[in-house]
Amino acid sequence: AKQLVHQASVDGFIVYSVAANDPFLQVVMSRGMPTVICDQPADRRRVPFIGIDDREAIKPVVRQVLEAGHTRIGVLCIRLDRSPNDGFVSRERLASAQMHVQRDRVRGVLEVIEDATLDPAQVPVVERHVNNPEQTYSAAAQLLREHPELTAVVCTTDSMALGLTAYAADAGISIPGELSVTGFDGIPQAVGAGITTVRQPSREKGQRAGDALAQLIAVAPRAGEQRVLLPTQVVPGTSITSPRAAGVLSVG
Question: How sure is the predictor about 223, in pLDDT bands with cuts at 50, 70 and 90?
Fold first, then answer.
């Protein structure tokens, strides 16, 4: 497959959301052709980048959770690295994560929690490598069974938030009465379900990436670094309220 990328007869590349150590990315970069990166990796110098500031974008919903009075907060995320990990995330794994979007969202959550003088080391983070309904459901089950004391869960994708709400419904957990939830992405299913989330301009990202590549090909194939960070928007929902009274969730 790497040979196909190396031999591809193209005028340029748009690299969409890959790990910083992805071998196909290395092949693309070795060709020296017009290239634009969309979403991740976010640390390539002298390569145009189109995306959002994931670390800052998630912070407003975390602040809403804290302002509602929550101190026992968990996190659900999707893959942080090319190497699979279906379970709890160590600080070492987070520090070395090569999938920058999820890494930065989790870091953003922990930074807000630390700014509130809470201990980020006490925040459990559960990861799933595959992002599908079965895996997001199981991630929610794992987090809440191990930590039934939690009163809020911040999800780094809407898919995770939907998996959590599905598990909560089956377990008889009231949202937001017993558990507050936030998402990220602003997909219609999450917004329709009343999940407080962050909408990102996915269509505009694609358009801007295409425009940037076309300009590189037509005008300046070896142009310097161009970094475009598009704005995001909090979409208020009904999934955050004050913490339940003292006690743990009743989970199977």
Answer: low
- CA dist 78 to 135, 140, 149, 248, Å? 9, 12, 22, 25
Cβ atoms of residues 196 and 234 within 8 Å: yes
pLDDT at 41 over 90: yes
* Cα separation, 10 vs 28, whole angstroms: 11
Q: What's the rounded Cα separation, in Å, for the pair 108 and 110?
A: 5
54-198 homologous superfamily: Response regulator (3.40.50.2300)
41-50, 91-100, 128-137, 162-171: the lowest-pLDDT one: 41-50
Distance CA 143, CA 124 (A): 8
CATH superfamily of 2-53+201-231: Response regulator (3.40.50.2300)
Inform me whether the pLDDT recorded for 220 exceeds 90.
no
- For the chain, the 3-state helix, strand and coil shares in percent, each to the nearest 5, are 40, 15, 45
Burial class (CB in 10 A: 0-12, 13-18, 19+), 221: middle
Q: Name the burial class of residue 197, with classes exposed (0-12), middle (13-18) and buried (19+) by CB atoms within 10 angstroms of its CB.
A: buried
In the block, residue with structure tokens 């970069």:
29
Q: Would residue 99 be called left, alpha or beta, if left means φ above 0 and alpha means ψ between -120 and 50 degrees? A: beta
Do 2-53+201-231 and 54-198 come out as alike in CATH topology?
yes
